[in-house]
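Margin note: ligand = adenosine-5'-diphosphate.
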Amino acid sequence: GYDLELIKVGKVYDNGTPAVIDFDLAVSKGEFIAFLGPSGCGKTTTLRMIAGFETITSGDILIRGRRINELPPERRPTSMIFQNYALFPHMSVRRNVGYGLEVKGMPRAEREARVERILETLDLTAIADQKPDRLSGGQRQRIALARGLVVEPEILLLDEPLGALDANLRKAIQNELKILQKTLGITFVFVTHAQSEALALSDRIVVMNQGRVEQISPPHVLYRRP
Ligand code: ADP
Ligand code: ADP
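Resulting structure:
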């Protein structure tokens, strides 16, 4: 079976805006998918529907064969990383990263062990006691990534997570994401309007325009030179 299926998914906002139209996609476990297209084409709306943050107007989304509407939020194997980081400014880095596990009620010893491991992996141990508002964009992005990964999701949803970073850092985090894909077998759905990013990361690129899927292809097929 597939990890994630979108079947004729549509979204019309309350104000009548048709944001997503007949979106079909089947994603295998461990695949890295990018949604690529200009601002306003429906990428974020689609991601938010997969995350369960936005209702679906028509069609259906299946996560590991189960309809998303029938999966209670705490049983969804998805985790979302936001464009604007959405970190808690008054909490330390360590607490920000552990918050999701705290909410889930994971016992303290297990939670702390997991948090320390992911802080280590993302090179955040040295700044673990600091508050995010004192840190750089790149550091904040790694914290957001740590927070998404610490819950060990099967499907990681990322909304333009690298947009605010300089080129070197972007490259470093791209490499980290590919390593995580290979070592942990996580399925990635990644929203971007940057062609270079989609090319560097994805197994398949979903090209979107005005709410519709225009094409779904591996990068080398999409950008093969004549
Ligand atoms: P993006 O980077 O995804 O294009 P935007 O800056 O367009 O983000 O949107 C930021 C926020 O505003 C999002 O939460 C989005 O849902 C909301 N939003 C975008 N367009 C509209 C709209 N026409 N009416 C109401 N809310 C909107
Ligand atoms: P993208 O992520 O590709 O920039 P979005 O999914 O944010 O695109 O937006 C798709 C369309 O839906 C746009 O026309 C946007 O203005 C509209 N939109 C987004 N959020 C809302 C909202 N909360 N209410 C109404 N319209 C919205």
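Residues 13, 15, 17, 19, 37, 39-45 surround adenosine-5'-diphosphate (ligand 2) (CB under 6 Å).
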